[in-house]
Design brief:
Layout (H helix, E strand, L loop, with lengths): L6 H33 L3 H26 L4 H17 L7 H27 L7 H9 L1 H20 L3 H7 L1 H9 L17 H4 L1 H4 L3 H30 L5 H31 L5 H22 L5 H13 L2 H10 L6 H15 L3 H12 L7 H17 L8 H4 L8
């Protein structure tokens, strides 16, 4: 029998699942040169793995969004988590590129089910004015899981091969999928304070909702940058800067772990704090982070001296600063009746324009010139994202004053 609603426990379980989600997703880039060597594939072929993954991920999201606005969401989350965990375990029998590609598509379908639904459940557990912090806790799993995904092959790979990390990453997902079934389903919109206007609460209004679209398009360009960096940075450090693959994964994973915790928590707190004074605070924090990252990305890629590592650290900090506030901005821009569908549309947008094209585009540029020049689209995407988000400040909904003035951790 399910227990009464416990927002903190639910947030913990969803965060743990998100942590595993990103471990599974990041193991592949960490062992990419080993796979590339075994299967004798080009950089473009390796970029295609991520592109196909996000293609199926993107195609699944709208279907799941429609189902989540109509049926019990916790069941859909459990099924999705079990599916991606099973597909991850199947890596043990992968011995050719085509099979790996199929395995990757199944992981994408399962992960899309979870990522589409979990934020809408969290939104029903916590009100608008603290969602920046709550979503920061949930999304802290992205850099933390990614960091562990990069480091895991160094722990188990040398003695058991590149397939072993996938098996270690896949098993815990089944347990967490079972725990999701014991979470009480929150009533949709139970924590909302904003009025469900037609622009925010209907599908027709969603198509003309500038707060939603500026958040989504800004996030798409951020996703373009982050997706490309996640896939190619370990290879860049290994191939261009001369690090061993193990050291490259430790360096990049360690930076992600530190920045992921520090920057994500600071961004969530800063967004909620400024929201007491500015309705566009979530957009402001996110856009400023994108602009501030630009000089450090340039330095990290084109400077081979001692400043390279600090530049990667600072660039990563500013790219991760907006994780909580930008997702909170997107979720607050819509009301409960269409929230899961809106999240699905957001996922469709950010992956179609973001990390679907970026890995393969970077691979093609690398094949035809040099890997350093493959990062130029990443730099352009960061600048475009910052401009869109600063523009989006004017469209942010006004949180009711009594809620904006409060900073309490509300648990109903």
């Amino acid at each position: 029998m399910r227990s009464r609603s416990n927002p903190a426990l639910a947030l913990f379980i969803f965060t743990a699942l998100n942590f595993l989600n990103y471990i599974d997703r990041s193991v592949l880039p960490a062992v990419q040169p080993l796979i590339q060597s075994e299967f004798h594939r080009s950089d473009a072929d390796m970029g295609l793995l991520s592109t196909v993954f996000f293609g199926f991920y993107m195609a699944t999201a709208p279907i799941v969004g429609v189902l989540a606005d109509r049926y019990e969401r916790r069941l859909l989350v459990a099924v999705g988590a079990a599916l991606w965990s099973l597909a991850t375990l199947l890596t043990a029998v992968v011995h050719d590129y085509t099979t790996l590609l199929i395995r990757h598509t199944l992981v994408g379908v399962g992960e899309a089910t979870f990522v589409t639904i979990a934020p809408s459940l969290i939104a029903d557990l916590f009100p608008e004015h603290i969602r920046g912090r709550m979503l920061s806790l949930f999304y802290i799993a992205i850099p933390a899981g990614s960091a562990c995904g990069y480091m895991l092959p160094n722990w188990v790979g040398p003695s058991h091969g590149w397939r072993a990390p996938f098996l270690v990453a896949g098993l815990p997902g089944f347990l967490l999928a079972a725990l999701v079934l014991f979470i009480a389903e929150p009533k949709k919109g139970s924590s909302d304070r904003l009025l469900p206007t037609p622009e925010r609460a209907t599908l027709a209004g969603l198509m003309h909702n500038p707060a939603f679209w500026t958040a989504s398009l800004g996030m798409a360009m951020l996703t373009f940058a982050q997706g490309g960096v996640a896939v190619w940075m370990p290879t860049f450090l290994s191939r261009v800067r001369g690090l061993t693959l193990a050291r490259a994964n430790y360096v990049f994973g360690g930076i992600l772990l530190f920045d992921g915790i520090v920057a994500t928590l600071i961004g969530g707190w800063l967004g909620d704090h400024l929201l007491k004074r500015y309705k566009g605070a979530y957009y402001l924090v996110s856009g400023a982070g994108m602009f501030l990252s630009l000089p450090f990305i340039v330095l990290a890629i084109f400077h081979a001296g001692r400043l390279m590592y600090p530049a990667i650290l600072v660039a990563s900090f500013f790219l991760l600063l907006n994780t909580g506030p930008l997702n909170a901005a997107m979720i607050n821009s819509v009301a409960a009746p269409v929230r899961a569908t809106a999240i699905a549309l957001n996922l469709l947008t950010i992956h179609m324009l973001g990390d679907i094209p970026s890995p393969i585009l970077m691979g093609v540029i690398s094949d035809r010139s040099a890997l350093e020049f493959a990062f130029l689209p990443v730099i352009a995407a960061c600048a475009i994202s910052g401009a869109i988000l600063i523009y989006g400040m004017r469209f942010a909904p006004m949180i009711p004053r009594e809620d904006r003035a409060s900073s309490a951790f509300i648990v109903e």
